[in-house]
């Protein structure tokens, strides 16, 4: 007899055949549930950690969908399933490490923890800092409704076997300081961090965020020795978010209706693709004058510096952490998102042996595809110019490494 069966006569009649089938075949159905990768699903209103993730992992059959509609399993069957489901709750979560417990790192760890998809380890060299911040976040779990774990550590042992590692460690940008000024110090920091990450999580995917972004991604890629799909950087998602925000403000429309893409290096010569920018599928050039678009493009390029000037100390962290989390989520849920990411190019867009921001498909394997789109001669020249700026920083790092022996 099925539990919580609907009292609606029409619905009852509609699924009466299914109900009889379930009553006769519960053993088979339970085994089907257990065999389906061990993932919890929503059955009769009982526990499911996340609808989207469970549905994606489970891909329920028509029979299991019918279980939801009719109302669930009988109580004896539920007793048999519940212990198994409780064991699966922790097993289904991934493990994500965030290196650096400053504003960007801590806020990123908080956002990922809130998703509930992954247990998080927050690492920093400052004694007790990651422990204190992670404990504070953990204690928000009952309010937010997440059982995901988050722990802090001053070493890398706790990060072992992470699926994704986000590197935010580095010195912060201050007023009047260009990203270039950060170069050599953050090169040494990211090199040391990457060596530890590779030691404890040799199969992970690394998402680098430390500035100057493109050069640091190149350094992490060369230090890690991973395939290029497993090392990339976050910059374009943030730059694109700023660009979309300014357009939405200018037109007084929802940011959700603004579609855009910013390519190139994460610096003053980034390349917002105006030709590909639309608002509700309408080209932005139909809605704004060239002068207004040029002004928005320039504000996008100056976006990080604008926030640095306002804060006086430190730099942006709310929007960067949101952008990082979007990319991490795309990996954890294998979403196959097309997003701008700083990836190592091997001839794409006429660029070879350099990490530059381009459209990429992000899924469970990291950068699963570098998406090449047609560019005008002007756009291609702007991208090449941006790549040349990145190459200059990479050359400075290479010379410094050579001098250090």
SSE blueprint and pairings:
Layout: H1 9-14, H2 16-24, H3 26-35, H4 51-58, H5 62-70, H6 75-91, E1 94-99, H7 103-115, E2 118-123, H8 129-138, H9 141-144, E3 150-153, E4 164-167, H10 183-200, E5 205-208, H11 213-224, E6 231-233, H12 236-251, E7 258-259, E8 262-263, E9 271-272, E10 278-279, E11 282-283, H13 290-301, H14 303-311, H15 318-332, E12 337-346, E13 352-363, E14 366-370, H16 377-404
Parallel strand pairs: 1-2, 1-4, 2-3, 4-5, 5-6
Antiparallel strand pairs: 7-10, 8-9, 10-11, 12-13, 13-14
Helix pairs in contact: 7-8, 7-15, 10-11, 11-16, 12-13
Q: Would you give an account of this structure?
A:
It holds the Pfam family IDH. It comes from Geodia barretti. This is L-lactate dehydrogenase. By secondary structure, this protein is an alpha/beta fold. The chain has three domains: 9-90, no CATH class; 94-233, NAD(P)-binding Rossmann-like Domain (Rossmann fold, 3-Layer(aba) Sandwich), CATH 3.40.50.720; 236-404, Lactate dehydrogenase/glycoside hydrolase, family 4, C-terminal (L-2-Hydroxyisocaproate Dehydrogenase, Chain A, domain 2, Alpha-Beta Complex). The chain has 16 helices and 14 strands. The protein has helices spanning 9-14, 16-24, 26-35, 51-58, 62-70, 75-91, 103-115, 129-138, 141-144, 183-200, 213-224, 236-251, 290-301, 303-311, 318-332, 377-404, and strands spanning 94-99, 118-123, 150-153, 164-167, 205-208, 231-233, 258-259, 262-263, 271-272, 278-279, 282-283, 337-346, 352-363, 366-370. The strands form four sheets. Strands 3-2-1-4-5-6 form a six-stranded parallel beta sheet, with helices on both faces. A three-stranded antiparallel beta sheet has the order 7-10-11, with helices on one face. The chain has a three-stranded antiparallel beta sheet with strand order 12-13-14. The longest helix is centred in the last third of the chain and has 28 residues, at 377-404. The radius of gyration is 24 Å and the shape is globular.
């Amino acid at each position: 007899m099925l539990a919580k069966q609907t009292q609606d006569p029409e619905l009852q009649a509609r699924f009466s055949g299914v109900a009889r089938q379930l009553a006769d075949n519960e053993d088979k159905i339970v085994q089907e549930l257990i065999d389906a990768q061990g993932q919890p699903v929503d059955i009769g209103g009982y526990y499911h950690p996340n609808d989207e993730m469970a549905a994606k992992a489970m891909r329920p059959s028509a029979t299991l969908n019918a279980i939801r509609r009719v109302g669930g399993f009988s109580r004896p069957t539920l007793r048999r399933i519940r212990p198994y489901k409780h064991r699966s709750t922790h097993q289904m979560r991934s493990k994500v490490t965030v290196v650096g417990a400053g504003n960007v790192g801590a806020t990123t760890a908080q956002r990922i923890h809130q998703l509930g998809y992954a247990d998080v380890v927050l690492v920093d060299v400052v004694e007790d800092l990651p422990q204190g911040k992670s404990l504070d976040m953990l204690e928000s779990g009952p309010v937010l409704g997440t059982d995901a774990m988050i722990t802090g550590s001053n070493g890398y042992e706790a990060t072992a076997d992470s699926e994704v590692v986000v590197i935010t460690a580095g010195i912060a940008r201050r007023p009047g300081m260009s990203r270039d000024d950060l170069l050599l110090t953050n090169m040494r920091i990211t090199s040391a961090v990457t060596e530890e990450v590779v030691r404890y999580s040799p199969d992970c995917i690394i998402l680098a965020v430390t500035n100057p972004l493109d050069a640091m991604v190149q350094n992490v890629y060369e230090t890690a020795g991973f395939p290029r799909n497993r090392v990339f950087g976050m910059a374009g998602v943030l730059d694109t978010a700023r660009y979309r925000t300014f357009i939405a403000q200018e037109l007084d429309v929802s940011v959700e209706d603004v579609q855009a893409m910013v390519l190139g290096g994460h610096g003053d010569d980034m390349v917002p693709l105006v030709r590909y920018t639309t608002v509700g599928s309408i080209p932005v050039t139909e809605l704004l004058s060239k002068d207004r678009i040029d002004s928005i493009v320039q504000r996008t390029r100056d976006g990080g510096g604008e926030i640095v000037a306002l804060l006086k100390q430190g730099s942006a962290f709310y929007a960067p952490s949101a952008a990082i989390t979007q990319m991490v989520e795309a990996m954890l849920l294998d979403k196959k998102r097309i997003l701008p990411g700083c990836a190592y190019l091997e001839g794409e867009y006429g660029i070879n042996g350099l990490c530059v921001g381009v459209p990429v498909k992000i899924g469970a394997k990291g950068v699963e595809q570098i998406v090449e789109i047609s560019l005008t001669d002007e756009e291609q020249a702007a991208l090449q110019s941006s790549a040349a700026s990145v190459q200059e920083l990479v050359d400075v790092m290479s010379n410094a490494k050579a001098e250090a022996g």
